Amino acid sequence: MGIFSRRRTATLEPGDAFPAAAQARSGSGDTGLDPALRALTGQWTIDRPHSRIGFSVRHAMVTTVRGAFADYDSRLYFDGERPSRSRAELVIRVASVDTGVEQRDAHIAGADFFDAHRFPEMTFRSTSTVHEGGETFRMTGDLTIRDVTRPVELQLDYLGSVMDPFGYERSGFDGTTTIDRTEWGLVYNQRLAAGGTMVSEKVRLQFDISAVRAEG
After folding, report:
1. According to the 3-state scheme, what is the secondary structure of 86-154?
2. β-strands 169-180, 148-163: how paired?
3. Left, alpha or beta for 64 (phi > 0: left; psi -120 to 50: alpha)?
4. CA–CA separation, 206 and 33 (whole Å)
């Protein structure tokens, strides 16, 4: 494999593929855009080998465990003229969780947490996007885990755009948000003798995205 992979996930045509209600809830705040952002309008797809859909969580109150999901599909449309029209969808296979420890991965994918056998996928579908100024955006969407859907808000920072050695236009975004996992039914825990819990309820989600402009 070269330094830049040509593997791509599914793309989404703008229009009817996203619910009309989601488009109707799109926010304003499209003023003050850099011309370079306007040039990014179009369909994009996440390049999985050069991206990371990850999370971090406190373990035993004293350290941080980090993990990521290797198997997911992306559907992205960025409108650099009117960012409020931008849309994103991720479908993540939770059994692909990887924290670097097989036994821990099996526990996370099992019934105590994601219960991948019953609920094999978690999804994020955007409902609005607002340009907050400069290269920062706020994307609101519905996160579904174990058939529980709740709204989340991501901060998205645009990192830049380049033409890679294979002739693909590539753009970078960083997204972050923090959720309370118990709101999605992920309530498993163990109490520590000195107080506190084995796994924190707060989970930081991290989206390190290298997106490639889709063909056609």
Report:
1. CEEEEEEEHHHEECCCHHHHHHHHCCCCCCCCCCCEEEEEEEEEEEEECCEEEEEEEEEECCEEEEEEE
2. antiparallel
3. beta
4. 25
Instruction: Please tell me whether residue 209 adopts helix, strand or coil conformation.
Output: strand
- For 33-70, the pLDDT digits (tens) are 677 788 899 999 999 999 999 999 988 677 899 999 99
Distance CA 44, CA 13 (A): 10
Question: Facing residues of 176 across strands?
Answer: 155, 206
Sequence letter at residue 114? F
Structure token digits, residue 113: 């947490």
Tens digits of per-residue pLDDT, 149-202? 999 999 999 999 999 998 999 999 999 999 999 999 999 888 877 767 778 999
d(CA 97, CA 107): 10
Virtual CA dihedral for 142, 170, 52, 23, nearest 10 degrees? 0
Q: Decide: 203 and 150 in contact? Cβ < 8 Å.
A: no
Amino acid at 155: Q
Highest mean pLDDT among 92-96, 134-138, 183-187: 92-96
